[in-house]
Give the backbone structure.
Amino acid sequence: MQITEIKVSGLIDFAQGNLWQNLSPKPITLLRAFSQSKNPRANADDVALLIAYEGNQLLGLVGLLPDFIHGESSMPASSNSCWWVDPQKGKHLAVPLFMKAFALCNQKMFMTDCTPHTLQILVRTNWFDFPETPSGMRGFLKLNLHEVLPSKFPSTWKFKNLLKLGDYCLNTLLFSYLKWKQNRFRKIGIEVEYLSSLNEEMHQFIDVHSHDEFIRRSGFDLEWIVQNPWISRINNEKCGVLEEYPFSHLVKHFKQYFVKITDSGQSVGLVLISLRDGHLKVPYSYFHENHAQQVIKVIYRECLLQKAVTLTVFSPGLVKRMSTDPQPFIFKKRIKRLIAISKQLSDSYQKYPVLQDGDGDIVFT
């Protein structure tokens, strides 16, 4: 068995080399390698990927996404971007690989979307703190039991087609009601501008509205994210062999874009919209609390224009408006996000306790 470290500067060569070509499954997609190689917060010698393999068999991997705390290059850290081992041959490698990755980033690691299973493992290490975070909100604009039930109860997967038919019938019955309920959100009386890039005004707007953030990404960071996704559409000719990758990365529809919000000639908000197979999220949002109502109206309008199935937000200002203001959903529910902050970063998190919805690697997935 061999364990190999791949640095940021070597990602593209690795993803185009013989070892990557022969390994099964693949430890990284070519799209992701290109994206991470351009990470504006990474140094060339930062380790981005740690893999264990025997012959052509990938046994395990841990990914690192170099970052800065509060946007300061003097405070480097990394988020854990992936952690996988072969369920049969790699079980014994899960913790040793993670320990090595933890050491490679000088024990300055954070995770912004842990699974309960991962959290259980991390608790036993005593290396992390697990701060309580504000609840998010998920609103359903259509019924989608054919997605929800199989994800929670795998035994219902065999009934997915029947559930899909049921969703179609119920959504058809609800069509007139939903159209009436949602029409009020199509005309909002607020100026909306779609941006492919951010000008100096928007860079400054982001800076002004991010002073308490733990990660505090800049406008340049956000442009890197939008221009270098990790997800590819299924009809993309470049997909090919990437189907062997152990994480979800191929979808039918995916796009991200900026929306600038202006009211009475004044810039009051900027949001990054992410739409993946009908599920809309807002990885980054910048606004003063006084303008949260205008911002949520614009987001609702985007949900309707994009024919979204769900909307998910964690920004406390937006969650508050979703809880109290008129909304276009059939129903909505509170959701939690589990995070882990290594003890070496705990003081920084207490000083800058605000996380954006997309911090870590969430914005890419």
Notes: The longest strand covers residues 72-85. The chain is about 30% helix and 30% strand. Residues 6 and 156 are 40 Å apart (CA to CA).
